[in-house]
TrEMBL record:
PANTHER family listed in its UniProt record: BETA-D-XYLOSIDASE 5-RELATED (PTHR42721:SF3), SUGAR HYDROLASE-RELATED (PTHR42721)
The name this protein goes by in its record: Fibronectin type III-like domain-containing protein
UniProt KW DNA damage keyword: no
Homology family: Belongs to the glycosyl hydrolase 3 family.
Annotated keywords: Glycosidase, Hydrolase, Signal
Origin species: Riccia sorocarpa
SUPFAM superfamilies, per the entry: (Trans)glycosidases (SSF51445), Beta-D-glucan exohydrolase, C-terminal domain (SSF52279)
Regions crossing the membrane: none
Length: 819
């Protein structure tokens, strides 16, 4: 106590004494602020805590509470609160708080999350986002995040986790070698934008919608307070970050040379959507530099673009030690004081790391930093904790939190685990199915061989990185063995997915013997965290070690059909198997999470019909000749550079973005869609103004039919495409419809070959049909990115819309009236 008093100013001594007087009348077990800190701030230990700390008063507007909170802090206390690990601040009754929680595909192990240190031993583990994205099901993205946030709240109440989570990872999966591509929704800016929006809303909002997006009518509009957060989600890593460690180039040193055009239509749109539509309350700036400037020191990005143009309301956190990287690695700053001054002035609010807690005051003393930047940073970060209800007292008190009742019984609930299974089923992609070999009938398979290094995986391989402890898990072998009485297993490889070592021939022989005896063979191959992970990019797209050797040998000797299962995040060159007629079917299962084995077994035995589509292009091995450091999305034929992603890549991929088969057959038809749009030049001006300002406005929908010839277009218009989809095949299935747009002269002059502008997933019984309406925002989605980094209004001429792989196309003429 004496030590505490010594550290306080005179005014504060008087203040503490006043508080102590108040507490004397309170019961003996209650603590006074400044003396001991309770588990939650503003916990009602003092009779009238709001008189001492106005920021504890729930009736006051949040901004006022935040300002009041910061005003109680000394400069020394402020410095210590600029980092992710906050120890307690006794003068304001603030307990220790760890900001760093992870929840990429389930509440995950991280500094703020403690499995085992309490009653909760595990949480629901969903597939890695690359597989979930393959479902092309936006309500699934949201539902998963709702379950994660519910479990996170339960863990918070059990004192095993915090309220701030650094997910989703929405960097564009630009290069197939990237070790963290598995964490993302893939290579397309539109899909990634939708994923960002729905995931963040699922994390942060109350649950007012059901699985199909229907509003819950029993919830009053007045209950929806956009300021309140269930948990806080974070859009990361802003921006153009998608290289970890490739040969000698690492993410800390990497200076990404990015064109304004690529930033505008590829790297930044997911972040814009995450902020504008998802209303994310946090954003993380990345390690790398962009055109020479570290992302966390870039005022034009953090303050002008994100906070200014996009209207971000939340805190900006540095990637962990990204401030240190500025002086220790990239030498952008001369010393730590300068680095932290740059970051805070640019708009970073919270430093994951410890540079800020050690050097901020020095930066102030040296005249490098004004105190106002510190206050602004604390206001931005602590406002989020206020919005989370952290300062509303004990959450178990129904007056202070609607989530206070969630506890250990709300984690790993059956319906949560069912959703993990559903997500894996919906994401799995059928890449090849010659002669309709799949699904298998249980009656015909009396003896099954399940072979390969990923057939009976470790948890780490099934779940992928940024994982927690799963509720439980079944490997493919364990799940398949429950379908067929006689199931044999052999890894076929020495040393897991590395698949190499002295006895490799013997391993292949042992596996081959099982293949010879079985009615069918399931080969579970691919990668694991040992090949692709954070801080580790690949250098080859081929299956590692002797894996190809194993697949080829087995397919040669097997008596029954051979099915190849690929467990991997980043793309593989498996051309050898694609064209090998002895390999009947190929399924991609990503890193499928705790229920991945069961999902695979249900698909193989026809209980479920696969409907997923690849969210990323699978390139041939020669693609690795391109330097991974080349950030350009657009091809350059003069130097033989083929470009990146389905939007620009000029070569032939192994499998394309959007590839994926079904056990049934769907047909599509454009039922009604606009043929001609005519605009006055006034609208054209408005559209370009809108695009420059990126002003969020409400959109009006104009219904059009293909009969109408000349449709005048409105500045602010959504155009509608009515599509009829029919299941013409024998079984129930899910059709994923991808609507693409192509500009006039698509693929030329820096324009994408095509661009996804809408997707829907519908379930149809055999012979059932359904109409699906796509709405496309004329100004925002049909405009194109110029080399100067601004949007150009939709071009005059013939635009082409198509469904899937050009299965059906629809032309649309845009004309601007001359006056
Ligand atoms: C609708 O909201 C009410 C009140 O929050 C809740 O009890 C009910 O379960 C919700 N209904 C559905 C279908 O989600
Ligand atoms: C497995 O392979 C990796 C990569 O070649 C190697 O580093 C490791 O030592 C091997 N482990 C064993 C047990 O052979």
């Amino acid at each position: 106590m004496a030590m505490v008093l010594e550290a306080l100013s005179c005014a504060r001594i008087a203040f503490v004494i006043a508080v102590m007087v108040t507490t004397i009348s309170a019961s003996a077990s209650e603590a006074a602020p400044g003396e001991a800190v309770t588990q939650y701030p503003c916990q009602g230990h003092v009779q009238d805590i709001t008189q001492v700390y106005p920021f504890c008063d729930k009736r006051l507007p949040i901004d006022e509470r935040v300002r009041d909170f910061v005003s109680h802090l000394s400069l020394e206390e402020k410095e210590k609160l600029l980092v992710n690990t906050n120890s307690e601040t006794t003068s304001v009754g603030l307990p220790a708080y760890e900001w760093w929680g992870e929840a990429l595909h389930g509440v995950a192990k991280s500094p703020a999350v403690h499995f085992g240190k309490g009653p909760i031993k595990g949480a629901t583990s969903f597939p890695q986002p690359i597989l979930t994205a393959a479902s092309f099901n936006k309500m699934l993205f949201k539902k998963i995040a709702q379950v994660i946030s519910t479990e996170a709240r339960a863990m918070y109440n059990e004192n095993q986790a915090g309220l701030t989570y650094w997910a989703p990872n929405i960097n564009i999966f630009r290069d197939p070698r990237w070790g963290r591509g598995q964490e993302t929704p893939g290579e397309d800016p539109y899909l990634t934008s939708i994923y960002a929006e729905y995931f963040v809303r699922g994390m942060q909002e109350d649950e007012f919608e059901d699985m199909h997006g229907r509003q819950n009518s029993s919830v009053k509009a007045s209950d929806k307070d956009p300021e309140k957060l269930k948990v806080s989600a974070c859009c990361k890593h802003f921006t153009a970050y998608d290289l970890d460690q490739w040969y000698k180039v690492d993410r800390f040193d990497f200076d990404a040379k990015v064109t304004k055009q690529d930033l505008l239509d590829t790297y930044n749109p997911p972040f814009q959507s995450c902020v504008e539509k998802g209303k994310a309350s946090a954003l993380m700036c990345s390690y790398n530099r962009i055109n020479g400037v570290p992302s966390c020191a870039d005022y034009s990005f953090l303050t002008e673009l994100v906070r200014g143009t996009w209207g971000f309301d939340g805190y900006i956190v540095s990637d962990c030690d990204a401030v240190q990287v500025m002086y220790a690695n990239s030498k952008f700053a001369e010393n730590p004081q300068q680095a932290i001054a740059y970051a805070l002035q640019a708009g970073m609010d919270l430093n994951c790391g410890d540079t800020a807690s050690k050097f901020t005051l020095e930066a102030v003393k040296e005249g490098l930093l004004d105190i106002s930047f510190i206050d602004a940073a604390l206001q931005n970060s602590f406002k989020v904790l206020f919005r989370l209800g952290y300062f509303d007292g004990n959450p178990e008190d129904p007056e202070s939190s609607k989530y206070g009742k969630l506890d250990r019984n709300d984690v790993c609930k059956q319906e949560h685990q069912d959703l993990a299974l559903e997500a894996a089923v919906q994401g799995i992609v059928l890449l090849k199915n010659d002669k309709d070999t799949l699904p298998f009938s249980r009656l015909n398979i009396r003896k099954l061989a399940v072979l390969g290094p990923n057939a009976d995986d470790t948890i780490a391989t099934m779940l992928g990185n940024y994982a927690g402890e799963p509720c439980n898990y079944f490997t493919p072998y364990k799940a398949l063995a429950s379908y067929v009485e006689t199931t044999t297993y052999h890894p076929g490889c020495v040393n897991g997915t590395f698949c190499d070592g002295n006895n490799w021939i013997e391993y292949i022989q042992r596996a081959s013997e099982m293949a010879v005896e079985a009615d069918a063979v399931i080969l579970v191959m691919g990668l694991g965290q040992v090949q692709e992970r954070e801080s580790f990019d690949r250098t080859s797209l081929r299956l590692p070690g002797k894996q190809e050797e194993l697949v080829k040998t087995i397919s040669r000797v097997a008596r029954g059909p051979v099915i190849l299962i690929l467990m991997n995040g980043g793309p593989l060159d498996i051309n050898f198997a694609k064209y090998d007629s002895r390999i009947k079917s190929i399924l991609w299962i990503g890193y499928p999470g705790q229920a991945g084995g069961e999902a695979l077994a249900q698909i193989i035995f026809g209980e479920r019909n696969p409907g997923g589509k690849l969210p990323v292009s699978w390139y041939p091995e020669f693609y690795t000749r391109i330097p991974m450091t080349e950030m350009s999305m657009r091809p350059d034929i003069h130097i033989g550079y083929p470009g990146r992603s389905y939007r620009f890549y000029t070569g032939e991929p192994i499998y394309k973005f959007g590839d994926g088969l079904s056990y049934t057959k769907f047909t599509f038809l454009f039922e009604s869609a606009p043929l001609t749009l005519i605009s006055s030049s006034k609208s054209r001006l408005f559209c370009s103004w809108l695009l420059e300002r990126r002003n969020p406005t409400s959109t009006s929908t104009t219904k059009m039919t293909s009969d109408a010839d000349h449709i005048p277009f409105d500045e602010n218009m959504e155009i509608e495409f009515e599509v009829r989809v029919k299941n013409e095949g024998p079984v129930f299935g899910s059709s994923v419809m991808l609507l693409y747009h192509a500009h006039p002269y698509a693929g030329l002059f820096g324009k994408p070959i095509k661009q996804l502008v809408g997707f829907e997933r519908v379930d149809l019984e055999s012979m059932e049909e359904q109409k699906v309406v796509f709405k496309v925002d004329l100004c925002r989605q049909l405009s194109f990115a110029g080399v100067d980094g601004t949007w150009f209004f939709p071009e005059e001429g013939m635009h082409t819309f198509s469904l899937g792989d050009y299965e059906v196309t629809h032309p649309m003429q845009i004309t601007y009236a001359k006056n």
